[in-house]
Records
---
Amino acid sequence: MTEIDVRAATERDLDAVESLEEQAFTHDRSSRSSLRRFLFSRSCEFLVASLGERIAGYALVLFRAGAAVARLYSIAIDARVGRRGIGRRLLGVCEAVAVERGCASLRLEVRPDNERAIALYLSAGYQSFGRHEAYYADGAPALRLQKPLWRSAAALPGDPPHFHQSKPFTSGPACIIMVLQWAGWHLDPGGDDELLLRKEMSRAEPASASEADRSLALAEVLRRRGLDPLVHLAEAKASPSERRLNLGHGPHEKGLRVMSSNLDEAELKRICDGHGLVLTLATRHFLDRGRRKRWVLVHRLEGGFVVFNDPLFAERPVDNTPSGRNRMLSLELFRRITLRGRTGLSVAIIVRKGSAS
Ligand SMILES: CC(C)(COP(=O)(O)OP(=O)(O)OC[C@H]1O[C@@H](n2cnc3c(N)ncnc32)[C@H](O)[C@@H]1OP(=O)(O)O)[C@@H](O)C(=O)NCCC(=O)NCCS
């Protein structure tokens, strides 16, 4: 089967989405004008799944300012390509998008007689938590389901401290500060290390720096402080001939160790078990409406969950949003938010204690 691509919807998809609505729902369809409104709303993610040129499905996820709960407003797959995993894939992306917006759970309503959809949701980890009577236009009730997307892990001795980034562009410096403190450096909490580190990173980047260059600049800043980072850079979706990133001799000349391969799960576990840390770039890998990707700091694997510090969120939860320290995300979702860009550039910078001076 042609590969399924999930991306943000555009105006050109509206015809296809409208016909999906007509095909999939007999009641409570979204009108063309509301679909168009969703397209331009900042409190909504409008996604389409395409199979080559063809739109095979769509989904709408709604957000409320300050709320930690996202809502799956609609999902529909073209019946001609049903039961081929497209619905499950699209649902997974909806969850990743909710996670990227800092939501702790995804909720939805479903008709009690919609067996296909209920089977999909239950198998994807959703649980029933209530019911709305006379919810749909024909008077039918709705089952309410939800899935927790995040968990918080208890802090353990040896976990890196948390540092909350004070500017939208300082996740890298914030992660460096966490690494340095974990490695035993004493930094002045009221000092301006964050901005100084940002400047240092910018100076280490070549003009017109690519994402790979910026990652190397971060590694370079760590190396200058006596850590010996190992950088994994890989373009997951590039063709085999493009797979080797052309980084020139720069990293080698600076004494940086770089591998053009993905960090696999077994390796990630080995590093965490060996008390190493992994800095990685998290983002919505196909959507970026002005929201920046950011660095996060992985320090543990627990069961199938990755535990990491997220500098975008404060250490203590505010208004029910997850805490920035010890956020837990399933490996599957974590992979989704750390594989990014059209070519799926993934970055992992490994640091271990002992190499710090
Ligand atoms: C529900 C829907 C989105 C599923 O999309 P899909 O691409 O067919 O689903 P997938 O192929 O990813 O299947 C995922 C799971 O859904 C369930 N499922 C999908 N089609 C099913 C069918 N015909 N019979 C029983 N279960 C079915 C199964 O649990 C399936 O997992 P499995 O194949 O491993 O057993 C799709 O059927 C649809 O668009 N329905 C109409 C619109 C709708 O009801 N939307 C939900 C509103 S709440």
---
Amino acid sequence: MASETMWFWLVHLLLQVFTVRGKVPAIIVFGDSSVDSGNNNHVSTVLKSNFAPYGRDFYDGKPTGRFSNGRIPTDFISEAFGNKPIVPAYLDPTYDIKDFATGVCFASAGTGYDNATSDVLSVIPLWKELEYYKEYQEKLRGYLGKERANEVLEEALYLISIGTNDFLENYYIFPGRSSQFSVAEYQNFLVQIARNFVSELHHLGARRISLSGLPPMGCLPLERTTNIFFGSECIEEYNNVAKDFNEKLKGMVTDLNKEVAGIKLVLSNPFDILSQIIENPSSFGFEDATKACCGTGLFEMSYMCNKRNPFTCFDANKYVFWDSFHPTERTNQLVADYVVKNCLAQFM
Ligand SMILES: *[C@@H]1O[C@H](CO)[C@@H](O)[C@H](O)[C@H]1NC(C)=O
């Protein structure tokens, strides 16, 4: 009996040590609409989602500027790490450094690795997200003291999710980059920017960094709609571009882990789990993976997805996609669970 009690306490103690040691003090997010929690509300752009029916399944049914009916993957990841269930947007004046000390989001919908991509819809370029991060570092040092702040910045988990818009909003739409680069060259150009960004982040004190791969972007409802006379199939070319890009990112991640002392960089690749969901929606409890919930589901997003649209679905949980470009909260949760388990577990 006595030894049983001792074992109990020993295990209990070990678990505690493990939890405390493994704890990530803050989640720090960079990227595009896949992870923007409301920064675009405070930017002069037409790419917004801070109105109904966006957010209708969020806390209090509040539209926050997240491009979904509810939470986005970074919210779920933050929660899985024992932090807040939402990651607040840096430009939202209702939050301050007290809130941002455990989680902050610099992402901006519509942005990309390429400066030319953020120009398309006048959103925050990636380099500017990093400028905001530097400003945040100073505020955090003012709030926590230099030593503790540097500790938090070093132990924080950095999540970067970006790149889809470089292809779908820029390369394949405008002649600029596509006349300058072949697709393969453009991929290399973007991977180099990703590499510089991660290196700079490391230089500024970050250690645990997750870089997200691209989704099967040819299966986004908006892209399928351009294929409407061919059965609304996924655009295989775009899916292959995403796959190739992810392979290149993976190579870069492997290289940086070898070259940069102390960095722990992982590729969080949502491609496979999303492909499985899209190919076999019913086995994940979905009824529709081709059309989105909002509006006709064929093309609506941002201001086109609004509460005057009579076609919006009743139960978003039955849909893989919320608007023509973004997943529902349920899909976001499945992706986050997958990423936490398969890519981020080492940071827990
Ligand atoms: C993007 O723009 C910023 C600010 O002008 C500049 O510092 C940076 O070098 C540019 N990035 C690329 C890849 O051209």
